[in-house]
Amino acid sequence: MTLGLINANPVVHAKKERIARNEDFHSDDLVDPLDIYDFVRDIRDPEHPYSLEQLSVLSEESVSVDEKLGRILITFTPTIQHCSMATVIGLCLRVKLMECFPPHFKLDIKVSPGSHANEESVNKQLNDKERVAAALENPNLRQLVDACLYSNEL
User: Do 53 and 93 form a contact (C-beta atoms < 8 A)?
Assistant: First the structure.
């Protein structure tokens, strides 16, 4: 957790009920955006002990799939326009999805248009393979990502 929270009092929403879904993303079935959402909705926010779903950073509508092009697009909305954790949130999404999707899918992760003061810069960082690889080599950053992904606090 960081000292001096940027958004000390975020709005917290109730979690939605889970629907039983197929968890085998490697099957020949079409990729369902709701399956992807279900897989990432419990990622913990880097600043708060709530999930991205509870903070409305992610929603079911924030995931789209283009099967023909093999593209998955996830847009997320930081809780505030100058969120310093936006790149960490995007990195968490990328790492989580890299664990389960075959490499033939192109994964685009972006902040929702108009939702961040540095939208273009954040989007560029999150979709540059070299920057992502360098970020994951940083032990402190990797520890923060792992804490968000594998936390049992929720």
Answer: no
Beta carbons within 8 Å of 132's beta carbon, 6+ residues apart = 91, 94, 125, 126
Distance from C-alpha of 39 to C-alpha of 115, rounded to nearest angstrom: 23
Phi, psi torsion values for 132, nearest 5 degrees? -65, -45
Neighbouring residues of 26: CB distance < 8 A, sequence distance ≥ 6: 100, 102
Quick check: 90 and 82 in contact, CB under 8 A? no
Contact 75, 86 (CB under 8 A): no
If you search the block for the tokens 């099957």, which residue do you land on? 27
For residue 34, how far is the Cα from the chain centroid? 14
The percentage of residues in the chain with a pLDDT greater than 90, rounded to a whole number, is: 67
Q: What is the pLDDT of residues 10-66, one digit of tens each?
A: 666 566 665 555 555 445 567 889 999 999 999 999 999 999 999 999 999 999 999
Rounded to a whole number of angstroms, the distance between the first and last alpha carbons of the chain is 15
User: Could you write out the DSSP letters of every residue in 23-39?
Assistant: --TTSSSPPPHHHHHHH
